[in-house]
Structure formats: C-alpha cells, structure tokens
Amino acid sequence: MKKDYLEAAIETAQEAGKILCEEFDHPAQITYKGDVDLVTQADKRSEQAIVARLTKYFPEHSIAAEEGTGHESDSEFRWHVDPLDGTTNFAHGYPCFSVSIALAQRGALLAGVVYNPFYDELFAAARGAGATLNGKRIFVSKVDTLATSLLCTGFPVHKRQANPNIHYYWDFTLRSHGVRRDGSAALDLASVAAGRFDGFWEFGLKPWDTAAGVLLIEEAGGRVGDFSGQPYQLGGPVILATNGLIHEEVRGVALEISQRDPAAPLRR
Questions:
Q1: What is the domain-level CATH number for residue 234?
Q2: How far is CA 109 from CA 59, 76, 223, 244, in A?
Q3: Angle between helices 165-175 and 247-258 (to 10 degrees)
Q4: How confident is the model at residue 263 (pLDDT cuts 50, 70, 90)?
Q5: Which of 58-72, 92-106, 154-168, 191-205 is least confident?
C-alpha cells in the first residue's frame, strides 16, 4: 500500500500521539536502559504503532527506531523514528515531549514530522515544499545578533560529567538573552524552525533525535551544521542549528570554547 511520504508520516505521528496522550493520563510504567536512561510503556506502545503503520505502507523500507523494533532492508529509504522524545519529561508529568518521524533516501532527508500531542502542535516538512505548523507556513526568526538571541540546548541523562556542554551553556547564557533546556531535542529543533528559538546546539544526539528537525529548519530558511562549519551528518558528534543570521557568530563562540583547556576555570 503506497502513500505520500509526508502524508504517511503525519498520519503515523498523530496515531502515536493519541497513544502518548492516553498513557500521559496514567502513572508511568518505567523500566531503565542502564542506571538512569528510562523507558516507559508509552515509548514501547508508540513505537509499535509507528513501525506497524510504516511497514504496512512501505514494507520494503528500513526503519531505525529508538527502542529497537525497526528493521533493516536493502532499500535506499530509511525511516528515523523517535516514538517519544522527552521520555523523562513525560514520566514526570511535564508536557514537553514529542513524536519524531523522518524519511531519508540515501541519507538525503525527504519528509519529516515532529508532533507534540499534548498541545496538538504538528510541525511538518517535505524537501523543497517548505515547513508548516498545523498547516501554516513557518519561518526561522530574523534576530541577527547572539546578544539578542534566545537559545536552546540539552544534556544527556547519563555520563553527564563527561559531557562538555556545561562549558557552552555557561558561556552562551552570558552572551545571549538566555538558554533554555526543555528536554526534547526534536521539539527544540522544531522551535528553531518556527522562530521561537534563534539557535540550538547539542552533543551526541542520535539520527532519530534530529532527522525531522533538521529538515524543518532547512525548509524554514535556517542553517544546520557543526562547530567546524561542515554540514551536519545524522548521528554526528555535535549539531548547531540556527536561523542562519547568527550562525557564524554562534559557531565562532563555540569554537573559542572548544579550544580552551576543559579543566581551566570558566572565564570569558
């Protein structure tokens, strides 16, 4: 059964969103991947529904899903699925979480959806067709200086002491209007696309965290890369996503921070 790629992604994300809203009204049933990286029944139910529907529509496609229920094939098409981005928020009753679904062909992103079912906000994009929020076109912000920017970032749930981001968080907080840490990278990227944030950076994200958000930002007129100025590769060690206007300024500050001795005092 063939369907339009974006249409299928939207339909699938909405189905998964209904499951998450059902589960959100009940006490979270939590298990753990390691010491602190939690998984809820909602993650599992959402992923099962997503994988089942995408497999029905596109049985030959590969599906890479966070909880491991996807499958590989020889197809040049691969779906990147995060059934519940913001699991920790979800488990604590904080309504900042999303479903993220994207399709790539030989690594080139074709369609992407980020859906926050609690607020019924559906961000969608198709290559060359622009980005939308609930059907209305969205664009990145027009803020053109770091000093007047609102930024966003995130921190891992494990090995936090080994993660360098606190250095960047401290510095960017001083140099901007502020830095938010909302706990859902997919929604953070969608918010850059919608002009709510002017920039986002983070370390160590997986392809299913970023694929849909990257396409949203590109189709909304923004820019995505890494600290060295190279294009962002899905699963790469660092992502920098901005409205484009502040990109080089933010990247310059990030490079400056990265070149310091990590053990040195955090001084400007």
A1: 3.40.190.80
A2: 19, 12, 14, 19
A3: 130
A4: very low
A5: 154-168
Q: Would you call 15 exposed, middle or buried from its count of C-beta atoms within 10 A (0-12, 13-18, 19+)?
A: middle
Bigger pLDDT: 30 vs 118: 118
Beta strands in the chain (DSSP E): 30-33, 37-40, 62-65, 77-85, 98-105, 108-116, 121-126, 131-133, 136-137, 150-153, 178-180, 199-203, 223-225, 238-242
Place of tokens 């850059």: 192
Residue 129 covered by a domain:
yes
| CA–CA distance, 224 with 218 (Å, rounded to integer) | 7
Place of tokens 């995505």: 224
* Length of the chain, in residues: 268
CA distance linking residue 171 with residue 173, whole number of Å: 5
What crossing angle do the helices spanning 185-193 and 207-219 adopt, rounded to 10°? 0
Query: Which SS3 state, helix, strand or coil, does residue 183 take?
Result: coil
Structure tokens at 264: 């040195």
CA distance 242 to 60: 35
Contact 82, 67 (CB under 8 A): no
Regarding pTM above 0.90, the answer is yes
Q: Would you say 28 and 94 are in contact if contact means Cβ atoms under 8 Å apart?
A: no
Residues 160 and 191 in one domain: yes
CATH number of the structural domain spanning residue 84? 3.30.540.10
Query: Cα 242 from chain centroid?
Result: 13
Average pLDDT over residues 182-209: 97
